[in-house]
Amino acid sequence: MFFFVLLLYYFVMRKFLTTPIYYVNAEPHIGSAYCTLATDLLARYHRKKLGNDNVFFLTGTDENSQKTVEAADKEGQEIYSYLEDMSNRWRATWDEIGVSYDDFIRTTEERHVETVHDLLNRMLANGDIYKGTYKGKYCTGCETFLKDTDLDENGHCPDHKKPPVDLEEENYFFKLSKYQKPLLDWYEKNPEWLRPAKRKNEILAFLNEGLEDISVSRETASMGIPMPKDDFHKIYVWIDALINYYSAVQGKGRFPFWSDAFHIIGKDISRFHCVIWPAILLSAGIRLPAGVFAHGFFTVNGEKMSKSLGNAISPIELSQTYGNDALRIGLLSAFEFGNDGDFSREHFDVIYNSQLAGGIGNLFNRVLVLIDKFLDGEKPKASTKDMTESREKIEEAFEKLELKKAIDSYFSVVGDANQLLNETEVWRMAKTDLEGAKVVFADLLVYLEFLAEYATVFLPEKAPDIQAMLGDASKIGKAGVLYPRVTIEG
Ligand code: MSP
Question: Three-state SS for 46?
């Protein structure tokens, strides 16, 4: 019996969704909010489908980085109090913009340090880690060694527009080269593991060139988790950071989530997640996550938005102007998930005024005011309208991680309802043919109920108001303005 219950427990459908953990040397911007809100949208969709307990959404902060030490120095702050302040600021930003994470991990936490040591010990034990000397060009912005072929025409890091520094030191190395073949085999057997396909092709091309062993420790770093049994060497921040995903499932009955881990990342960090991370796991004898999706960049005038380039836009500021629902819908519907796209305030104005204020907000208000007026708020008898097609469209888009398509499919239901309203002119019909109008109202309520049901996924900020407006089984609630129009200056 016990065995049977255990078996059942392991066969429950689950989803473990992760964002990258963010560097805390600056405040969040809409590039990081994009990634986090995309994961949040997916988490909300899966909670609706699988139940709250079967979804685990993880985010957090990447703190053992040399650049945080530099940032703390610049602020004249002690490093650990700086890390705590900044990590709290990231968390508070996610709270403020409605991110429904289940756990927030910090890489300076003891639970993480223990897991990092556990994995490194396993890799040491099987002979995959050895000592050697590293000489190369290092970019602190990327926290990585760059090859000459990675640099731009000025010899600078193309992302950070700065020359890398020459570094030579004794390091521990990971036998990454040993995993070229196992990784290629993995990709062959799991063709959907990394999406979209263009990212997989890049990784396959990289793997086919052959892999070099990588250094996994820093001699000079003042910040970092010490190597097991060797305090002098600090573990390379990227090795430590990747392990966060595994640290988060230790204890608290979370382990069953591991096999359902799905990483949402930006395309700039796909080599770390799609070459180094699976190689670490193979080396440590741990099952690989279920998949990875690498999205594109939000650009400002064609350039990647980033704290180091100084062109960052704050998600808080956008949320204060438009609200949290518009923030997520505006960011995630600007271009298809997986592609790059430019940020534009006009897009936000259009989304807000046409989809929210003039779209769903106006629709709810109009229909409910009419039902109140003509039917005294009584809900007409059940309609036969079938929403299966809309439901399937949304589900299919989510399964394929086509987030823009999922959002567009949701708002197309607002369009369908408006079309029915306008074609039937139900406000006129109700005066001469109340029975006919009741049929139309019943159909309209099916649309509204569908929109309210999925509001927990797409419009979580106003979802409770939207649902309250629909009242109970027999009577509608009170109509009201869900999204007041905003006048945008400039
Ligand atoms: N700390 C590492 C990740 C470690 S994960 C084990 C890191 N941090 S980061 O703060 O620099 O970036 C985190 C994520 O934000 C990356 O996925 C990156 O692609 C994403 N974005 C940063 N700027 C972005 C845009 N302008 N647009 C979209 N996403 C971008 O890398």
Answer: helix
What are the 10-residue block averages of pLDDT along the chain, 490 residues in total?
53 92 94 96 98 98 93 94 97 98 98 98 97 87 84 90 88 97 98 98 97 90 91 94 98 91 97 98 98 93 72 90 96 95 87 95 97 97 93 98 98 98 97 97 98 98 98 94 77
25 CA distance to ligand 1 middle (Å): 12
Strand partners, 145: 138
Residue 4 has a pLDDT of: 54
Q: Give the separation between CA 54 and CA 15, rounded to whole angstroms.
A: 6
pLDDT score recorded for residue 138: 87
At 105, list the tokens.
């991990």
pLDDT at residue 9 in the model? 54
472 CA distance to ligand 1 middle (Å): 44
Q: In this predicted structure, what is the pLDDT of residue 423? A: 98
Strands 291-295 and 22-23 come out as unpaired
297 alpha carbon – ligand 1 mean position (Å): 9
Nearest CA to ligand 1 atom 24: 31
Q: What share of the chain is helix, strand, coil (3-state, %, to 5)?
A: 55, 15, 30
In angstroms, the CA 444 to CA 57 distance is: 35
First to last CA, the chain: 68
Q: How many beta carbons lie within 10 A of that of residue 300, not counting itself?
A: 19
* Residue 223 alpha carbon to ligand 1 centre in Å: 20
Which of 18, 21, 22 to mutate for ligand 1's pocket (most ligand atoms within 8 Å of CB)?
22
How is residue 53 annotated by DSSP? G
Residue whose Cα lies nearest atom 12 of ligand 1: it is 22
